[in-house]
Amino acid sequence: MSAAEKTTLHSSTLAVRQAVERSQYGENSEALYLTSGYVQPSAEAAAARFSGEEEGFTYGRYGNPTVASFEQRLAAMEGTEAAMSTASGMSAILMMCMGLLQVGDHVVCSQSMFGSTIKLIGSDLAKFGVQSSFVPQTDVDAWRAAVRPNTKLLFAETPTNPLTEVCDIAALADIAHAAGALLAVDNCFATPALQRPAELGADIIMHSGTKFLDGQGRVMAGALCASQQLMTEKFLPVLKSAGMTLAPFNAWTVLKGLETLDIRMRAQSAQALALAQWLEQHPAVDRVYYPGLSSHPQHALALRQQNGLGGAVLSFVVKADTPELGRARAFHVLNQMQVLSLSTNLGDTKTLVAHPATTSHGRLTEVQRQAAGVAQGLIRMSVGLEHLDDIHNDLLRGLNTLASVK
Hints:
By secondary structure, this protein is α/β, with parallel strands linked by helices. It has two domains: 3-31 and 63-258, Aspartate Aminotransferase, domain 2 (3-Layer(aba) Sandwich); 261-404, Aspartate Aminotransferase, domain 1 (Alpha-Beta Complex). Helices cover 40% and strands 14% of the residues. The protein contains 16 helices and twelve strands. The strands form two sheets. A seven-stranded mixed beta sheet has the order 1-7-6-5-4-2-3, sandwiched between helices. The longest helix has 20 residues, at 261-280. The protein is globular, with a radius of gyration of 22 Å. It starts with a helix and ends in a 7-residue tail after the last helix. The mean pLDDT is 95.
């Protein structure tokens, strides 16, 4: 498929059609190439391919046809020139930071980002001389004020995990570019089915393919989407040296998951909105966080950036007078479930429910958790495709008996 042809096709079409060329066997479903090495036609060709002067696969750590199909498809769906896959979402963030940053550089991040992201950038990279500032996700002025002469990267997650805070991507892109920096956006929650950050000025889009891109909780995967120049000059050298390579089977699994991404995200978003509206009315629930609700502080911005949909993830806080009671009551709701899955993953066709304060954000300090708004009574839900009545009834086992937890 030519570049001109790609620009005329919708994202849902690219999700089932974009891939490397078929082999000589004419397979309709993309092939799974399980090989660690490649036989070269000549010594001269091998030298040219390893030096980058000629296209061609050389070694499994550097590239694979199945992996290339996944990368081409994701880039086409995000509207970027290229994509590069990794073994997980966190390894994609590590590759981005290793490719762009060095001692003395500064990063500005949302303080509401995924707990492991905060730990990696705020603590682990600090050991290697990378400075960082964490600001309120939705405060554009705070982002602007945090920029320093040595700022090289602004990194936002929208919507955030787990409070679904939404940032103004275009505004942050303007701030980054005015400072000579790049803007990276974690697009895991919305996916390109709902939101394409590159169209709003983002330079890099990060994905944990483990989540909605796969869609059925089967494999780990990650990716960066950006310009071909960034891929070639910044990220590919890191991938070749550090080897955070995506396995071909995992790439093939997520590649096939992309084919149903659009219909899954629309169906699961509709489920999540109905569930969020129902939870808002329950007397045991103190607050619901979901961009599709009119009560969400960034509701209008979210719908404008996300194709009019709120996504498939919501969080809610159970009523409690103290953090200790909040935790006990959240645990009670989780422990009473018989149908839904108690799991820290998200993006599955099965509804997954978790307690962020003790799982995804458990490695943060209490101060960091409070800054991110992760209360002990907070429960996060990645809404799947079960019948809504069954989701309601499973939650009611705990919600309707919270008074017994004192």
